Amino acid sequence: MDNNLVAEAINLTLFGMGFVFVFLALMVVVTTVMSLLVIKFQPNLSLAATSNIELSSDIDERTKAIITQAIKMHTKT
Q1: Residues 37 and 57 in one domain
Q2: Contact 29, 37 (CB under 8 A)
């Protein structure tokens, strides 16, 4: 009786781990495909979109000073 119980526990464990592995592998593939589609349809998007803040001339001087001061305060601590 104990052998049957242990065999069922091992079977259930392997089935669960297999399901999780397949799910995570599928999630990686789907995420990669979605990323490639976004890059294909909008090629001018970059991964570092926040770095465009420094290059943008639409920011007025007051806002630029506030952002610069916040960055200095953050990197100081």
Answers
A1: no
A2: no
Contact (CB, 8 A) for 12 and 19:
no
Q: What is the pLDDT of residues 4-26, one digit of tens each?
A: 999 999 999 999 999 999 999 99
> In terms of domains, do 6 and 22 share one?
yes
How many residues does this entry show for the chain? 77
Same-domain status, 36 and 63: no
CB half-sphere exposure, 5, CA atoms < 13 A: 2
What does the pLDDT look like over 59-77, one tens digit per residue? 788 888 899 899 988 887 6
* Full-model pTM: 0.49
Residues 54 and 66 in one domain: yes
AA letter at 7:
A
Q: Which two tokens mark 68?
A: 């610069």
